[in-house]
Design brief:
Layout (H helix, E strand, L loop, with lengths): L7 H11 L2 H7 L8 H19 L3 H7 L2 E3 L2 E3 L4 H10 L18 H14 L1 H8 L1 H11 L2 H13 L2 E6 L15 E4 L5 E11 L8 E8 L12 E6 L1 E3 L5 E4 L2 E6 L10 E14 L5 H37 L23 H33 L3 H37 L10 H11 L6 H14 L4 H17 L6 H27 L2 H35 L5 H18 L2 H11 L2 H4 L3 H4 L6
Parallel strand pairs: 3-6
Antiparallel strand pairs: 1-2, 4-5, 5-11, 6-7, 7-11, 8-9, 10-11
Helix pairs in contact: 1-11, 3-6, 6-7, 6-10, 6-11, 8-9, 8-10, 10-11, 10-12, 10-13, 11-12, 11-17, 11-18, 12-13, 12-14, 12-15, 12-17, 14-17, 15-16, 16-17, 17-18, 17-19
Length: about 600
């Protein structure tokens, strides 16, 4: 069975040393409760829960899967008991508002816990995963009655939430949805339709399931402007707030999936079910975006967690597995062969995983600061800046970390060789689980269009400038620091090039809008490498300071510098290929004829 140790030392480095979380928490309204002692205790206990409770259920849950009988779903053995421990420990309420039963701690702490959960049992983590987003959507857009009925239960975890968007005939293009909501005399709505790919849509872990459903009113405008949001519970709450009569919503079938077998991915049939409007009519998509943005970042954290899990196990295997001798001569002459970690290509794979795990963690925690500031910041200007940065970073977190997460888990299998392909080692499960992260909550292509089209070009580059100015200031401040020259100089060039390349895409798009779609994915990946370059440069600065001050952990800080060098020298060059692809433009993609595709019709 794969093992996992929460990377607590690396978390403390990023949080306390690099990003100065103690000072960050001190600036938040109510952040004084997040004392170093409390944060440390949360990290330690979260690590214990993930390793001792969730990890042992990961492989068994994958093999067993979920069982559907008569519309009721049973999760794999042990999942329900683990969820009960999760609720009893107060984990669901960690970052929720005290007025709704939450502990009022910063969202960043919940995000740290989420990494540990995703690394040890992604399928289990998806059951409570969307509840936080559902609670946020109701907190921001629900009526007082809806908050009183649903919010406290979602916060405490006794009820869970879902997000019901996709239908059999439409995924991203939500303007095509057919689910209908007809108003009733009592103020409720009769919701009828079918939703697919609903994570944790039906299960036996919680007392009730609260579905947030996109549907159209009878007089709704066409397209996405006519979408409304409804809360549709599995059991209709009684006047006392307890689960009552069964609503007309049932799981019609379970999807047979490549991975995340332990989570119930459901086809949900809403058969004249009773629902209640959330927010204003025809404004449902705006309400749902509160939940969707949280889910996007959550999926990016899934990519990070799987990267870390794969890296840890690949590293342990590479230290023990004996194969061949090092090309430069035996490194373990007393053994029959050298451990494979001595071989350059194995080191390439391990360091790629390590760089993406550490870089991804820095990106998530950097983004987490923005979320904390938006939610609890006391300074209006800081909140506005954080919101702008969050808009830019969200698609990068989601898409870049899942793309490189899939790469990293594949490299983990490769380190194991033939054993990686065998189920017992658990490495192939990580690959299968990681593959979905590039798809749900918006594919990489959709995130890329959001980043380049909506966030950057539609803002005339102002959103991007908010970030590149920060990078520029860092480079200017450190340009005389000889210890950082190997990082700062290439970073400054990349940062300038990013802006120039963006302007060039915008100019080409004025004549042909297809240029945006043609450039978008390469643009997002380029953005991801530059963003991580900035964060690795900051990490390198902190490592140099610690070494200069005579730290008692020199090996840790030297490893930080070595990983940063590997990232800059072996991974940052990938930006050259992405830039070249962007500059090739739309013509190579769009010029091919229907005849050449063998389609028999025009495209």
């Amino acid at each position: 069975m794969p093992d996992y140790q929460a990377p607590l030392r690396d978390l403390r480095f990023v949080m306390d040393e690099m990003l100065d979380y103690p000072a960050h928490y001190a600036r938040l309204s109510g952040g004084e409760d997040a004392s170093p002692n409390l944060v440390g205790a949360i990290l330690e206990e979260g690590a214990r829960f993930a390793r001792e409770v969730l990890l042992p259920l990961n492989q068994s849950g994958d093999r067993e899967g979920c069982l559907l009988e008569g519309g009721e779903v049973k999760a794999p053995k042990g999942f329900k008991a683990a969820y009960a421990q999760y609720v009893e420990g107060g984990w669901p309420s960690l970052a929720a508002e005290p007025e709704h039963g939450g502990q009022g701690l910063p969202h960043s702490l919940a995000m740290v816990l989420n990494e540990m959960v995703c690394a040890t049992n992604l399928a289990w983590g998806m059951y409570p995963g969307l509840s936080h987003g559902a609670a946020d959507a109701l907190r921001h857009h629900g009526t007082d009655e809806q908050k009183a009925t649903y919010l406290t239960r979602l916060v405490e975890g006794t009820w869970t939430g879902t997000m019901c968007l996709t239908e059999p005939h439409c995924g991203t293009d939500l303007g095509l949805i057919k689910t209908r909501a007809v108003p009733n005399d009592d103020g409720s709505y009769t919701v009828t339709g079918t939703k697919i790919f609903i994570s944790a849509g039906e299960h036996d872990l919680a007392e009730n399931i609260v579905h947030l459903v996109l549907a159209k009113l009878p007089d709704a405008p066409e397209g996405s402007k006519g979408i409304s949001l409804f809360v549709v519970p599995k059991f209709l709450p009684t006047d006392a707030g307890e689960p009552g009569e069964r609503n007309g919503v049932v799981c019609g079938s379970l999807e047979h999936k490549m991975g995340i077998h332990g989570n119930a991915t459901c086809v949900m049939n809403f058969d004249a079910s009773k629902g209640y409007l959330v927010g204003a009519p025809n404004k449902g998509l705006a309400c749902m975006f509160t939940m969707m943005n949280a889910a996007r970042i959550g999926v990016g954290i899934q990519g990070l967690g799987l990267t870390e899990a794969s890296f840890q196990n690949a590293l342990a295997y590479a230290r023990d597995r004996l194969q061949m001798r090092a090309l430069s001569g035996a490194k373990s002459p007393e053994k029959a062969a050298d451990p494979i970690i001595v071989h350059p290509d194995v080191r390439r794979m391990l360091l790629t995983q390590k760089a993406f795990a550490e870089g991804g963690r820095m990106l998530v925690l950097y983004t987490a600061q923005m979320i904390d500031t938006v939610e609890h910041g006391a300074d209006a200007a800081e909140k506005e800046r954080a919101e702008t940065l969050l808009g830019l970073l969200t698609p990068i977190v989601k898409a870049f970390l899942t793309e490189v997460g899939f790469e990293a888990t594949n490299e983990g299998v490769q380190v194991f060789g033939g054993h990686g392909y065998i189920q017992e080692w658990g490495m192939e499960q990580l690959v299968r689980d990681a593959r979905i992260t590039r798809l749900y909550e918006g594919t990489t292509g959709i995130q890329a269009l959001d980043l380049l089209g909506r966030k950057v070009l539609m803002s005339q580059g102002e959103t991007l400038k908010a970030f590149t100015k920060e990078v520029h200031k860092f480079c200017r401040a450190e340009e005389g620091n000889s210890d950082l020259a190997e990082f700062v100089r290439p970073l400054a060039k990349l940062n300038q090039e990013w802006g120039e390349m963006t302007m060039a895409i915008g100019m080409k798009a004025m004549n042909d809008r297809e240029e945006v779609g043609a450039a978008s994915v390469d643009y997002l990946m380029y953005a991801g490498y530059v963003t991580l370059s900035y964060l690795f440069a900051r990490a390198a600065k902190q490592a140099c300071l610690a070494l200069a001050e005579g730290t008692d952990e020199p090996a840790f800080y030297r490893a930080k510098l070595d990983t940063a060098r590997f990232f800059y020298q072996r991974l940052v060059p990938r930006t050259r290929a992405h830039k070249a692809a962007i500059e090739a433009g739309a013509e190579p993609l769009m010029a091919i004829s229907a005849e050449d595709f063998g389609l028999g019709f025009e495209i």
